[in-house]
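Ticket opened by: R.M.
Priority: normal
Category: complex prediction / small molecule

The reporter submitted a protein together with D-4-phosphoerythronic acid and asked that the result be attached to this ticket for the collaborator who will pick it up next week. Submitted input follows.
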Amino acid sequence: PTQDELKRLAAHRAVELVEPCMTLGLGTGSTAAHALDRLGDLLRAGALPGVSGVPTSLKTEAHAARVGIPLLPLDAASIALSIDGADEVDPDLNLVKGRGGSLLREKMVEGAGARFAVIVDESKLVPRLGCTGAVPVEVVPFGAPHTLGLIRGLFHGLPGFHARLRTTTVPEGEQGSEQQPFVTDNGNYIVEMFFDGGIRGDLRDISDRLLRITGVVEHGMFLGMATVAIVAKKDGTVAVME
Ligand code: DER
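Result attached by the on-call engineer:
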């Protein structure tokens, strides 16, 4: 099966956890998109009456509306289950999320819910976080280069560490294109941290130090938040990690 078929497999298995009248946390990304499509199909077939969802991004809000999932604001919801993808899953079910830029609303919604099912294909499983790419940190735009400097200071001297402000390419008419800071749904910027070979050290200590930096809003390490991981293996079987 293709990677997308595996993502769909994991997503559909997670949707089996949904019961009528549940309020859900609706994730962001290509794997979560399969869960939204599946939920839409079931809702339209009358299979899940009373289900509604809290979206974790403007993109998911639009997708959920398009497939007919009733939406609720976070403050009006008691979320029974969130379903979302991840960029990395370590053996303790710690996650890297947010390479799609939605980490803040994801962490707020998934932190508010009773259960959180992560849906991934096998390629997301890592021995330690930071192995396959950036660990994102959402920072306020004011003084972002200064905040980047403070984040770099946390890891000063750590071999193989580097960090940068995430940029996006903006077409500039006939002059070609230019790089501008990536802006999140919340109007913030993203610092991307890179750790060669992954993060070696106490993840909670690193989390605490990051969150104490004035100007840092939140980071993409979701520690101890997932209650189950649904993993579609390359051979098409699905493993459930609790
Ligand atoms: O940005 C996010 O947190 C997404 O959930 C991401 O981590 C997973 O995206 P994917 O399902 O497209 O790989």
